[in-house]
Amino acid sequence: MRQPDFTQLQKVLERKRPDRPTMFEFFLNTPLAVRLAGLTPDQVGVWPKLSWFVHGIKAFAAAGYDYQTIYASDFRFPSGKQEHAKSISQNEGFVITDRDSFNRYQWRSPDSADLSLMTDVQSYLPAGMKMVIVGPGGVLENAISLCGYENLAMMVMDDPALAGNVFDAIGARIVRYYELAARSKNIGAMISNDDWGFAQQTMLSPEDMRKFVFPWHKKIVRTIHNAGVPAILHSCGNLEAVMDDVIDVMKYDAKHSYEDKIMPVEEAYVKWGRRISILGGIDVDFVCRATREQIRDRCRRMLQLAETRGGYALGTGNSVPEYVPQENYLAMIQAAYPEARFVA
Q1: What angle do CA 240, 246, 250 make, to 5 degrees?
Q2: Strands across the sheet with 187-193, in order?
Q3: What global pTM score does this model have?
Q4: Three-state DSSP state, 131
Q5: DSSP sequence for 178-219
Q6: Nearest-CA neighbor of 250 among 279, 204, 216?
Q7: Is the dihedral of CA 106, 112, 114, 115 positive or negative?
Q8: Tens-digit pLDDT profile for residues 163-173
Q9: Position 284 pLDDT exceeds 90
Q10: What are the C-alpha distances in Å from 46 to residues 5, 10, 32, 52, 219?
Q11: How far apart are CA 270 and CA 73, in angstroms?
Q12: Interatomic CA distance for residues 68 and 125, integer angstroms
């Protein structure tokens, strides 16, 4: 096993050159984590939350990562969406449509959420490994979940005051979530995960994003920086029109989530890599369809592109869902971790 050393990812997040190839992933699917953690089929069942993250720590460490992603608490924004659904319409499950439903909605408080997981998991972290806190969804994501995408778009035009109230109610609670997360030890960074775009453009116009969404992200980043750790933006979609906002206004340290059909990560690194760290980016569809040798070759070339300047960690463009062939995923990480050997 490679010894975890969070200082390597820290260097990447500071746009510096790490001492060795470094990896980043938002999350791994459960069957893959089970394999990496070295569990047998009879050890797999319905795990308590702590056990799930303990196995996750083992999986991340075995695969050569220097951290484990973890939620700070069980705080969420309940909606009418079905939790079991694999895919769901962005217009389904909404609970806020007007002023009355906004006033009736039972807004949870992050202060009443269970924060014990971050404390309980501390003793299971290997030396050199840290936690990377993941958010409870993002400002725009939760607004869409609570209102429905089409309803929210209409609300922004027809009742901007109500739309502003929705975004403010969500944003203030997410800021508080990160404030509470900052109390824990062994935190190396925090992720603000909020999908903003489609393949062609942002979900709201750049002007409306700047009016309703970005002011809260600026506060989120400030809160994370006040905790003394880097702020990572995980956001899918075409953000080219607002990348200057991400870098110069919100001041995120790193950006994650890339698709070849929008902009290959190699191009994103050349375009923005001197101003913000680039994480992952090996397109998930490519990892699914390419041969293992094609995957290793592309990953090696990406690492070579960033070798002198730094500010890059290898990983997929988004995450590793179950439909990604495990051997293809392993081919990707072996480009950065060639000594790794995994059994089926």
Answers
A1: 160
A2: 67-71, 130-134, 187-193, 231-234, 254-256, 277-279, 312-313
A3: 0.95
A4: strand
A5: HHHHTTSSSEEEEEEE---B-SSSBSS-HHHIIIIIHHHHHH
A6: 216
A7: positive
A8: 999 999 999 99
A9: yes
A10: 31, 34, 16, 9, 37
A11: 37
A12: 9
Q: DSSP letter for 247, please.
A: I
User: What six digits make up the tokens of 151?
Assistant: 């309803």
Domain ranges of the chain: 6-336
- Residue for token digits 């690492």? 303
27 in helix, strand or coil? coil
Q: What is the dihedral of CA 20, 26, 32, 34, to 10 degrees?
A: 90
Q: What angle do CA 268, 269, 273 make, to 5 degrees?
A: 115
Nearest to 129 by CA among 52, 62, 224, 221: 62
Q: Which CATH number fits domain 6-336: 3.40.50.300, 3.40.50.1820, 3.40.50.1000, 3.20.20.210?
A: 3.20.20.210
Burial of 65 (0-12, 13-18, 19+ CB in 10 A): buried
pLDDT digits (tens, 9 = 90+) for 302-319: 999 999 999 999 999 999
Q: What is the DSSP letter of 318?
A: S
Residues in the chain, total: 344
CA pair distance 10, 19, nearest whole angstrom: 11
The DSSP H or E segment spanning 132 is: strand 130-134
Q: List, for residues 230-244, the tens digit of each pLDDT value.
A: 999 999 999 999 999
